UniProtKB/TrEMBL annotation, chain A:
Cross-referenced Pfam families: WD40 (PF00400)
Name this polypeptide is given: Peroxin-7
Cross-referenced SUPFAM superfamilies: WD40 repeat-like
GO biological process, one term: protein import into peroxisome matrix
GO cellular component, one term: cytosol
Protein's UniProt keywords contain Cytoplasm: yes
Protein's organism: Collybia nuda
Keyword terms: Cytoplasm, Peroxisome, Protein transport, Repeat, Transport, WD repeat
UniProt WD repeat ranges: 87-101, 111-153, 154-189, 266-299
Gene Ontology molecular function, alphabetical: peroxisome matrix targeting signal-2 binding
From TrEMBL, chain B:
Organism this protein belongs to: Collybia nuda
PANTHER family tied to this protein: CHROMOSOME 10, WHOLE GENOME SHOTGUN SEQUENCE (PTHR36855), PEROXISOME MEMBRANE ANCHOR PROTEIN PEX14P N-TERMINAL DOMAIN-CONTAINING PROTEIN (PTHR36855:SF1)
Region entry Disordered, spans: 138-167
Name under which the protein is recorded: Uncharacterized protein
Pfam families: HTH_76, KPWE_dom
Domain Peroxisomal membrane protein PEX14-like KPWE: residue ranges: 112-159
Limits of the PEX14-like helix-turn-helix domain: 20-88
């Protein structure tokens, strides 16, 4: 619809549908790709390590450097923030694995605590030895690579937690989103249990959030923190809408508050939105990936008369489930999906 | 990366095979690394514009010869490979030479993506052994020593901006 079109660099992984991708925080051109065989229903997972190099005509040339096989499908991957060769994956069987890219075949650690699919992993950029996992079992767990058990467990929701992400600005602040239609912000230093309808501390304990945002009437599949505006988040999910939330009214010392001001709604995706990610370089630029087979880029606060939608990337032929901005190369975006294609392109 | 199959390295039973015979029997259809490379070439537009069959054969042959020479250390030529394939295509009636050699029925084709319906049928009829990419992976932990970190953490773009704004 608008913006220049450029051909993507493409890497295909036959037989393995993608679930997530992550750019290395150390090596500008290195990507990790989490994937599952047979639509993630049955069969193995595979972690791919991919390099991006300038190709003919400025087209990004992608090459597969290495791959690791896992028993069950892989749903998410996060690079370590303290070790350039290490990364963590979350799996359909509830397991979490730590990999060292200098070694072959097997992980260097594995943890099995979640009882259902681990759908997200996120490495803290502030407390650089800590990462978080979120699961369909409703839990969020905190980990360090060295510790054989999780450091702590948050009973974040009573249903699937699709994503949990650390605040990029404050340690100990983490946001989650869930089947229950909410986005929650937790203060990890205040592990209190909530009281109220639907909860009790015996059969349904639930951790108290500092702020609960009633983000949708249906499942919220994804969220992200704005990198330049503290306590501004984007969320999206089954209702096809992308929403930007101003949560600066949050009172960190309190729990149980409900709030969030919806600043903007981005309309256009035709099916559920599976991933949102703010630009690492600009406060008002957001990328989204959807089951409608497109990846889109939006300006969340366009100048008067300008459209919110900046760019549509539509070469995918199946669900697009992941998108991520290059951390150090401004305007380079990667997308991946169930067509087993990783695309890297300039926006 | 996948190991080189026995048929390519010339195990004892094939010690007398010529490079061309090894090439002709090389399991391109089941070699994941080859299939991945081929898939990314096709995704990159290698067969765009639907070239006529002979041109397409020639492009595919070039990928096979290149890959075969690289993984086996042989150096067969395009012309040799073409002559060999064409003469054998006539003599043994397999139809299309190495590209579509018959698959072992019991081994699922790891590179083919099943449709949802096909997958559902295999699950419901208990034929899970025919589901591709559904094998037992060792649960073991790597006992090699993990690498040492040598690279300091880099500042994220927004952290750099914050520092500049503070100054």
């Amino acid at each position: 619809m608008s913006g220049p079109r450029t051909l993507p660099g493409v890497l295909q992984t036959p037989g393995f549908a993608h679930y997530s991708l992550a750019w290395s925080p150390f090596h500008t051109t290195r990507i990790a790709l989490a994937s599952s065989a047979n639509f993630g229903l049955v069969g193995n997972g595979r972690l791919h390590l991919v390099s991006v190099a300038p190709g003919p005509g400025g087209l990004p040339a992608l090459s597969l450097d290495k791959q690791y096989e896992t028993q069950d499908g892989l749903y998410d991957v996060a690079w370590s923030e303290i070790h350039e060769n290490q990364l963590v994956t979350g799996s359909g069987d509830g397991s979490i694995r730590l990999w060292d890219v200098m070694l072959n075949d097997l992980p260097i650690r594995a943890w099995q605590e979640h009882t259902r699919e681990v759908f997200s992993v996120d490495w803290s950029n502030i407390k650089k030895d800590t990462f978080a996992s979120s699961s369909w079992d409703g839990m969020v767990k905190l980990w360090t690579p060295e510790h054989p058990r999780s450091l702590s467990t948050l009973h974040a929701h009573l249903s699937c937690v699709y994503q949990a992400l650390f605040s990029p600005h404050q340690p100990d602040i983490l946001a989650t989103c869930s089947t229950d239609g909410t986005v929650k912000i937790f203060d990890l230093r205040a592990p209190a249990y909530a009281q109220g309808p639907g909860t009790n501390n015996f059969t349904h304990p639930i951790s108290a959030a500092a702020l609960t945002v009633p983000a949708s009437t249906t499942e919220v599949l994804t969220l992200d923190w704005n990198k330049y505006r503290p306590f501004v988040l984007a969320s999206a999910g089954v209702d096809k809408m992308v929403k930007v939330w101003d949560c600066r009214m949050i009172k960190i010392a309190e729990t149980g508050n409900v709030g969030g001001v919806c600043e903007t709604q981005l309309l256009g995706h035709e099916y559920a939105v599976r991933k949102v990610q703010w630009s690492p370089h600009r406060a008002d630029v957001l990328a989204t990936a959807s089951y409608d087979m497109t990846c889109r880029v939006w300006n969340t606060s366009p100048a008067a008369g300008r459209a919110q939608l900046m760019y549509i990337h539509d070469p995918h032929t199946e669900f697009v489930v992941g998108c991520s901005w290059s951390i150090y190369e401004e305007g380079v975006l990667a997308s991946c999906g169930w067509d087993s294609k990783l695309n890297v392109f300039h926006v | 990366m996948s190991a080189i199959p026995d048929s390519a390295t010339g195990s004892s039973s094939q010690a007398q095979s010529t490079p061309l015979e090894l090439y002709a029997s090389y399991p391109f259809a089941t070699d994941e690394t080859y299939q991945q490379g081929l898939a990314s070439l096709i995704a990159g537009g290698a067969l765009d514009g639907d070239p006529p069959p002979d041109i397409k054969d020639e492009i595919l042959r070039r990928t096979r010869v290149f890959y075969f020479n690289r993984v086996t250390g042989n150096s067969i030529l395009m012309d040799e490979a073409r002559d060999y394939e064409l003469s054998h295509r006539e003599s043994n009636d397999t139809g299309a030479g190495v590209i579509s050699q018959p698959m072992d029925e019991s081994t699922p084709d790891e590179t083919r993506v099943l449709t949802f319906a096909e997958l559902q049928e295999l699950i419901e009829t208990g034929k899970v052994d025919q589901i591709p990419n559904n094998k037992i992976i060792p649960e073991a932990i790597n006992d090699a020593t993990p690498s040492e970190s040598k690279t300091p953490a880099r500042k994220k773009p927004w952290e750099v901006e914050t520092v500049e704004m503070a100054e």
